[in-house]
Write a structure and sequence with these properties.
Helices cover 40% and strands 18% of the residues. The chain contains seven helices and seven strands; from the N terminus they run E-E-H-E-H-E-H-E-H-H-E-H-H-E. The strands form two sheets. The protein has a five-stranded parallel β-sheet with strand order 3-7-6-4-5, sandwiched between helices. Helix 3 links the parallel strand 4 and strand 5. Helix 5 runs parallel beside helix 7.
């Protein structure tokens, strides 16, 4: 069955609304990963949940020019620079010291809304910007640890459709 409002399978909606879950959406460029994730994002916010969408491949301004229908959710859309990860990387701090990410997770977890979801589009490009090696899963482990501690669902978009070490950490 498909949710008529957003065209999302009921299984996806129930998966996210039951318990905090980790989901990986993977596929080649142009396969529809971003549109699928944006539908989940919009659906969660429209139902009173809280969701943040981290755009890594472009600025928030450009992203909103491509997807103007998301303007009403602009507050929940972040880009790489808004998290100041580039500054943290330049300072050479280890991932566990990413205070801006930690603060964001606390902001999400303190909301009295459910579900709580953080979407990373894409984890591959975030790792590239942070100069993390492809098979190094430290960043993913960091995000998964905080999502678990704060009971936040994580959705990773992955550009590489093949299996990776990250698969074993996802629900």
């Amino acid at each position: 069955m498909v949710n008529r409002l957003m065209g999302l399978p009921d299984e996806v909606i129930s998966h996210i609304f039951k318990e905090p879950r980790n989901i990986m959406i993977r596929g080649y460029a142009g396969a529809g990963k971003t549109i699928f994730a944006l539908n989940i994002f919009q659906y969660i916010l429209s139902k009173g949940g809280i969701a943040y969408y981290l755009v890594t491949m472009m600025s928030k301004k450009k992203f909103l020019s491509i997807f103007p229908w998301l303007k009403e959710y602009e507050r929940y859309i972040l880009d790489f620079e808004s998290l100041k990860l580039d500054l943290i990387k330049k300072l050479g701090l280890p991932i566990r010291d990413y205070e801006s990410v930690r603060a964001l997770f606390y902001e999400i977890s303190s909301a009295k809304k459910y579900p709580k979801v953080f979407i990373v589009d894409s984890i591959d490009y975030l790792k590239y910007k942070l100069e993390v090696k492809e098979n190094d899963i430290t960043l993913e482990e960091f995000l998964l640890l905080f999502s678990s501690e704060e009971r936040i669902s994580l959705i990773f978009l992955k550009e590489e459709p093949n299996e990776s070490p990250l698969d074993s950490m996802m629900d």
